Amino acid sequence: MIVADLNDKIVDLALSDKAFSDFEDGLQYYIAIENEAKIIITRNLKDFKASALPVMTAQSFFEYIEIFMLYKLHQRPSFKFITSAS
Q1: pLDDT tens, position by position, 70-82
Q2: Domain range holding 53?
Q3: Domain annotation covers residue 48
Q4: What sign has the CA pseudo-torsion 11, 50, 33, 62?
Q5: What's the whole-model pTM score?
Q6: Tens of pLDDT along 12-45?
Q7: What's the domain count of the chain?
Q8: How far apart are CA 20 and CA 50, in angstroms?
Q9: For residue 56, what are the β-bridge partners?
Q10: Which pairs from 75-79 meet CB under 8 Å and 24+ separation?
């Protein structure tokens, strides 16, 4: 977990982007972009329609992680055991 920096560049980007009608949403978006986040997790999906990043709710994110972990758990190893007869 990181604490992301809020600087003048991010504030300027948020103020100048008309795709985000809510200033705080713009700040969250540009903080995510500037810190190379892979996803935005929010309850407010409708205000992030212009996002270049995937956006999901916390519940959807945890469901995604659960499915991913189950998939990984059930994957078979891709190697073969080789035994030699003595």
Answers
A1: 877 776 666 565 6
A2: 8-74
A3: yes
A4: positive
A5: 0.74
A6: 999 999 999 999 999 999 999 999 999 999 999 9
A7: 1
A8: 8
A9: 41
A10: none
